[in-house]
Amino acid sequence: MGLYLWHPKGPRGIEAWQWCGVDRAAPDAVKEMIRVDFTRTQAAAGIAAQDDTENFEEVTEATLGVIGRTLDFNYQMGMKRDYKKNMPDYPGDLSPYYSENNQMGFYRAWSRLMGV
Predict the structure, then answer these.
(1) Does residue 62 share a domain with residue 98?
(2) For residues 66 and 97, what is the distance between their CA atoms, to the nearest angstrom?
(3) How many CA atoms lie less than 13 Å away from 71 in the CB half-sphere?
(4) H helix intervals, 2-100
(5) What DSSP string describes 20-39?
(6) Exposure string over 30-68, b if 16+ CB within 10 A, otherwise e
(7) CB 104: neighbour CB atoms within 10 A?
(8) pLDDT over 70 (residue 16)
(9) Closest CA to 39 of 69, 2, 73, 9
(10) 3-class secondary structure, 99
(11) What's the pLDDT score for residue 87?
(12) Cα separation of 52 and 35, whole Å?
């Protein structure tokens, strides 16, 4: 399991923290295998992280252009989806899909707290 925390560092900068979660009871050999695999794919020199970084850079560059500055981002991904229905055996709002489930959950909770 990978956990990620993104820290904005200004209008054109970001810092990413990554953790790899492994079952405490797993044998040391399994823990090491997972650590190495996570590092190979998700670390700064990994296969997937490099691709993600390039995508973030290109999105940033695209929004700086004349047309890009006139357009709004669409943050509606998954707004109509009932995440709990997808994984009824687990607590919380979980989804088997790549989504903005955590962000939507944050704003749902914020909305409840604000009485909206």
Answers:
(1) no
(2) 34
(3) 12
(4) 28-42, 47-63, 83-86
(5) E---TTS-HHHHHHHHHHHH
(6) eeeebeeebeeebeeebeebeeeeeeeeeeeeeeeeeee
(7) 19
(8) yes
(9) 2
(10) coil
(11) 62
(12) 20
56-115 tens-digit pLDDT:
778 778 888 888 888 887 767 666 666 555 566 766 666 666 667 777 777 888 888 998
Domain match, 13 and 46 both: yes
Residue 34 has pLDDT above 60, yes or no: yes
Task: Indicate whether 54 and 27 sit together in one domain.
Answer: yes
Regarding whether 62 and 23 lie in a shared domain, the answer is yes
Q: pTM above the 0.85 mark?
A: no
Structural domain total, the chain: 2
Please name the amino acid found at residue 28. Answer: D
Host domain of residue 42? 1-71
